[in-house]
Protein: Membrane protein
Amino acid sequence: MQMAKFFGNLNLVVGVGFALAIAVMLAFAPTLPVDVNSVFRWLHVFFGILWIGLLYYLNFVQVPTMPAIPAEQKGAITGHIAPKVFFYFRYAALLTVLTGLTIAWVNGYLVQALTFAGTGSIALIGVGMWLALVMAFNVWFIIWPAQKKILGIVEATAEEKAAAAPRALFASRTNTLLSIAMLYCMVSANLG
Structure:
């Protein structure tokens, strides 16, 4: 297979990347456990990077740059790039939350973390979980409905689009704010 053809196919690259990760897991299986916990931790980190990476792309690059883009070129972003970004953004949020909840459930601290009944690392991961749940709520129930109007995916009047933009920005910037503390919780808790 030609290298250009291989690297030109994102689905193929990601599939081979996952196959490589599985091969690494299996190669180290005699010394490191490959179990539900380790697989879901790996997926949690993968989806979390995708989610927060897209959040930061939107807040640090796309949104601040849009006013400087000539009107005749904005359609390329709003019609082609942004819908794809928001697809991966919202499903990465969902899968990050689901894999995180699965990790807590498999390890027996889900209820303790969500109710702050635990101490130390469990309490810290509980804070991170609640921050992530608020952020995922914002993605699915504030940002995405507003963006569907802004991007013309659903019918909306000019007034509805204008009203949707500040809502989406507020929720997105709230997520950026919350993500900083949430990431601290995620990497510092170190629960087995």
In short: Residues 71-106 form the longest helix (36 residues). The mean pLDDT is 94. Helices lie at 3-7, 10-28, 36-65, 71-106, 110-115, 121-150, 158-189. The two ends are 41 Å apart (CA to CA).
